[in-house]
Write a structure and sequence with these properties.
The chain is built from three helices and five strands. It is α+β, with helices and mostly antiparallel strands. The longest helix has 20 residues. It starts with a helix and ends in a 7-residue tail after the last helix.
Length: 127
Amino acid sequence: MNLTFEQRTNIDEKLSKRHIDLDPSGYFIIFIDPEAGLICAKHFTNIIDERGLAINPETGKPIPAKGKVERQQTTKFTARTAKEMCVKIFEEPRPCQITMLDHAAYLGREFMRAEMALFNGKEYIQD
């Protein structure tokens, strides 16, 4: 069965609203740098509390899911393609900064979206 663009969008939007457990090793902010032709990912550490909230290790306060948060990343990765980014993040650092398979799958999807936006001259907004 071939899905229409609208059907695919509806599936993705519904799945984006599901509960996910946060990776205790941290999170990534992904963006593109069109002038440099790069996909960028900043890694930030966090602590997951008993409620499942991401806590800033420096302040002990919850990290908001939306809005601007002023924190210093632990690592910044840049790559020309999604595959190159995945190699840099999943294969080069030891130990790997991702500890959950669903987090790894999410990052792979987002890096592909970022690559497509970069090469098509479109805006990229992380899901």
